[in-house]
Amino acid sequence: MKLLRTDEMMHLLQRLSDEGRVFLPRLEDETILFRRWEGDSPSLDALRAGNTALPAKDLLFPQTEEVFRFVANAQNLAIMSGEPDDAPPVIFGIRPCDAASIQMLDRVFLDEDFPETTYARRRDGAILVTWACTDVQDTCFCPTFGIDPAGPVQTGDIHVTDLDDELVLEATSDRGGTILDDLAEHLTDADQGAQDKVDSLREAVRESVVSAPAADDLAETLAGMHEDPIWEEMAFRCLGCGACTYLCPTCHCYDLDGETRGTEGVRFRCWDSCMFSDFTRMAGGENPRPTKRERVRNRFLHKLQYFSEKHGVYGCVGCGRCITHCPACIDIADFIYTVRGADCDE
Fold it and tell me: Per-residue pLDDT for 346 more than 50?
């Protein structure tokens, strides 16, 4: 563990900027979002405010991305490959749940047989500087999935614990260690007092996450609930707006679409949502998920059963965004409690 004075954080950001474009939480129109760092003083209030409204996945898997452009006439067709911005980002201040979600995107997009090349280029050089949670929200339940809200994350490079006047820095990768070595003149070794503070803080944060239902054997339980009445009950409340999927750090479905004007056109990739009625509609008009019941069921089973069966981990990190922003107050943590046969107030 190394100590860096909070008022000297600029040294860390400047060193990170040598590795690529730095993005960090900023307050924008009363909303905390990841935005490009332009060399100015970072906002500690934004860094300490909890999770950003939108996850950091947009920096690795953009919401909209051009694939190619074309010009066509009666005689010729010219296709120009898109030039996606595949420069690896440096993501500073990402919370442990969002950092863990990138592991899940890696499982999907870095499949050795069919890698998504643009994602792979961004991900290969990306640096993650995780920021320990010190004040969790009521909707957080990341320990359900084995995520420590205040501790280091496997996918990270440097982990930061905020002790107000000092930041405790831990290298969690070789690349992170090199960066901290380069900052040696600004860092001091953490003494036993600082380490004790970190340990106490982590324990207090873990205890404060009260909404943490056990996820053990959840996939096996759900495997026998395909026709359970619970899906009809949840579908009755669902508006089908898709907000849960667009705010989710692990959702990765996308569509290919395009626009044509005269002889010129563009094809682009954009996020899609399994909650939309046309997501599974086929060219002939048939739809295997014709009602909200099937779509709600698919979303929850994909997160909590199918993803686990295929990849060995659940497709949820307990960030709570879908709970916070669902206009129908559908609560995935409450759902897990119900499936486990437990009281959601426990």
Answer: no
Q: Is the whole-model pTM more than 0.85?
A: yes
Mean pLDDT of 81-101: 90
Cα Dmax for the chain? 76
What are φ and ψ of residue 4, in 5° steps? -130, 130
Task: Give the three-class secondary structure for 151.
Answer: coil
177 alpha carbon, distance to own chain's centre: 24
Encoded tokens for 87: 């420069």
Q: Which residue matches tokens 């998920």?
A: 289
Q: Say which amino acid occupies 174.
A: D
Cα 53 to Cα 5: distance, rounded to the nearest angstrom: 28
* Exposure on the CB side of residue 305, measured as CA atoms within 13 A: 15
Measure the CA–CA gap between 273 and 326, rounded to whole angstroms: 15
Residue whose structure tokens are 């730095």: 22
**Residue in the structure block whose two tokens are 């991900």:** 123
